[in-house]
Amino acid sequence: MYTFAFLLLAATMCLALLGAGASLVALGRPAARPSRIAEAAGLFAAVALSAASGILTRALAFSDFSVIYVADYTDRALPLFYRLTAFWAGQPGSLLFWAFSVALCGAIFQLTPAYSRLSGTTRHWYWVFYLTIIGFFGLLLTTWSNPFLVSHTAPADGSGLNPLLQNPGMIFHPPLLFLGYGGFVIPGCLALAQSLNPAADEARWTSVSRPFMLAAWALLSAGIVLGAWWAYMELGWGGYWAWDPVENASLIPWLIATAALHTMLLATRRNKLGATTVFLVALTTISAFFATYLVRSGVVQSVHAFGDGGVGNPLLVFVLAGLVLSAWIAIKGRDPQAPALSGLESREGFLVVTAWLLLLLAGIILVATMWPVFTALFSGGEQGSMGLTAGFYNRVCLPLFAATVALLAICPWLRWDGGLRRKAFFIAVIAVLAGWMGGLWFAEYRLPTPLLASAAAVAVLFGHGLMLTEPAGRTRNALCVAGIHAGVALIALGIAFSGPYKTEKDLILKQGESAQLGSYTVTLNRVMVGEGPGYQFLEGELGISLDGKPLGILAPQRRIYDKWSRMQFAEAATLFSPGNELYASLLAIDEQENVQFRVSVNPLVNWIWFGGTLLSVVPFLMLGARRARKTEEEC
Predict the structure, then answer these.
(1) What is the torsional sign of CA 441, 443, 448, 449?
(2) Which of 164-173, 385-394, 503-512, 592-601 is the least confident region?
(3) What gap in Å lies between CA 166 and CA 164, rounded to an integer?
């Protein structure tokens, strides 16, 4: 069965490359119909990778330890749902799932009426790019990262899944990322294809690929937010974003994709920045492959990385080739007759500045993440183990993020060609922004970046509320855009307060003792030892009260897993609140039964998850929305 699965991967690679070659040949014959070989290869890839994924899933479900991948990432004590999610716990499985995601999105697109209405030449070019990507996945999976390697002497039990991955967030976080990456492949390939066939009488690629672009962006957003939530709940350090290379690797494609969505608006409605948009959409997919290179090449060190499994160099070559090819096609496809952009005081100008800020953020994060590699090149020595510290990112990136949110508050009140479209509303928004900043200043919340970010976020929410008073602001499309921007604003509010104004303290308590954390009283009610499936734990039960009024119980744990006995793992506990959330992790216990806890008060942290939910859900509501009438009054 596993030999059959491997043969499916090999056949996918061969047929994909054959289909790409057949499409190239057909391009030399303008009258040729779309290649049946290419279309068959696309559908075969979806079926074959689905079948291969099903075979690996079955092996995981039934604990077939003759498969090396199953033995490496599961054991018999692991619950079924964690055995299944081990599919993407290791490098071979995660690459297979990503390839499956690409093939699934490709098959869906191939079966849509929009695909059938594309011209033959555009379809030929689309298949050249798309099947080359499928073929590259096939190459990786049949050579350096084969998930179906079999051992002749199967162990009685497996090595088990890393306890850090045994969390509900990790059930959904990786597959959502890969589904997002896979969805971006369709608009990327289609944009390049139509750029090479600009005279075609067909729907523009921006309209055809819009559902895939929105869905992929929403899925990637959900994956990133869930990853942050997992870090917050599972790692026990009280934060949700450490600027780790692997965290940065998924954020870079998201920033580029968000910039592309803004320039797509100009390309679609104003016939401007068409070539730039083509390049940015293609760059989104290229950056996803680069993210994979960061995680799987060993070029930077991270507790989340897979290490070098032989795929690093092929991925780097593929990324560089894709970058050069995409830039050449975008330049070649420029429209010399495209109208010039309006000035900075226009909505066009603000959209361009927003896109540039997002790209600047992506560039800074990329350079900072790769900093150990760059320093090694110049010094001739060995690279450092990590990139720049979190302090660097916070000082440089957070002000740019706050400025981007401020642009969101102003942009809707500008006309496309310049000037204000609702002067009274604009003045009201600015007044709210200034008033909020003044109120926080007098309340002694005076850190500049959080001050700007929170005020801009409130102004965004207030401004979109004003838009509901206009007919154009109540269209389905406008409401969805407002929902997405509101999600960004809520995230900005959560970040502005939960990080800079967090209160944290290490407490050492014996049973029955209490300590103060600001206005909160923390009491250690009891300490208990117990066992779970495959682990032992130490739990401390903390009673929390505010001004003498009981609020609830926190019960953080310290765990030692049977197959990871050299490491201890923290299970944090939280006391939910939309305002100040209490967070606790158990650090240690000594021979005198003094228990050390780290307890923190995280203001507005849950607004990050509320905003992230909006970002992840609202774009799907836009998929069926009809485009509203293009007027300057439209939001």
Answers:
(1) negative
(2) 385-394
(3) 6
Nearest to 117 by CA among 49, 66, 174, 190: 190
Tell which phi-psi region holds residue 548, choosing left (phi > 0), alpha (psi between -120 and 50) or beta.
left
With contact defined as beta carbons under 8 Å apart, do 49 and 171 qualify?
no
Nearest 10 degrees: Cα torsion 486, 455, 358, 617: -10
Confidence of residue 633 (pLDDT cuts 50, 70, 90): very low
Angstrom distances, CA of residue 554 to CA of 544, 545, 572: 7, 11, 9
Half-sphere exposure of 521 (CA within 13 A, CB side): 12
Residue 622 CB partners (closer than 8 Å, separation 6+): 214, 476, 477, 480, 481
Q: Is the CB of residue 549 less than 8 Å from the CB of residue 519?
A: no
Separation of alpha carbons 438 and 432, rounded Å: 10
Q: Which two tokens stand for residue 303?
A: 């507790």
Q: Would 554 be classed as within a structural domain?
A: yes
Q: What's the number of domains the chain is made of?
A: 2
Token reading at 129: 């790019």
CA distance 68 to 71: 5
Average pLDDT, the chain: 90
Q: What is the mean pLDDT of residues 484-502?
A: 95
Does residue 23 lie in a domain region?
Answer: yes
Residue by residue, DSSP assigns 233-280 as HHS-SS-S----HHHHHHHHHHHHHHHHHHHHHHHHHT--SHHHHHHH
- Three-class SS of 81-114: HHHHHHHHCCHHHHHHHHHHHHHHHHHHHHCCHH
DSSP state of 315: H
Is 456 or 199 the better-scoring residue by pLDDT?
Answer: 456
State the DSSP string of 224-244.
HHHHHHHHHHHS-SS-S----
C-alpha 173/C-alpha 606 separation (Å) is 18
Beta-bridged to residue 531, according to DSSP, are 536
Query: In angstroms, what is the C-alpha Rg of the chain?
Result: 26
The answer to the question of residue 488 being in a domain is no
- Give the pair of three-digit tokens for residue 354: 């927003």
219-234 pLDDT, tens per residue?
A: 999 999 999 999 999 8
Query: What is the pTM assigned to this prediction?
Result: 0.93
Geometric angle at alpha carbon 559, from 554 and 561, rounded to 5°: 155
* Residue that terminates a domain, selected from 129, 148, 166: 166
Specify the residue for token string 């954390």. 517
Distance between CA atoms of residues 429 and 460, nearest Å: 8
The distance in angstroms from the start CA to the end CA of the chain is: 55
Beta strands 595-603 and 503-509, pairing class: antiparallel
Q: Could you list the residue range(s) of the whole structural domain that residue 21 is in?
A: 1-166
Closest of 170, 19, 2 to residue 94, by C-alpha? 170
- In order, the DSSP letters of 531-547 are EETTEEEEEEEEEEEET
Q: What are the DSSP calls for 444-511, one per residue?
A: T---HHHHHHHHHHHHHHHHHHHHTTSGGGGSHHHHHHHHHHHHHHHHHHHHHHHTTT-EEEEEEE-T
- Which H or E run contains 141? helix 120-142
Report if residue 623 sits inside a domain: no
Distance between CA atoms of 357 and 400, rounded to whole angstroms? 7
Chain CA centroid to CA 198, Å: 32
DSSP 419: S
Residue 301 DSSP symbol: -
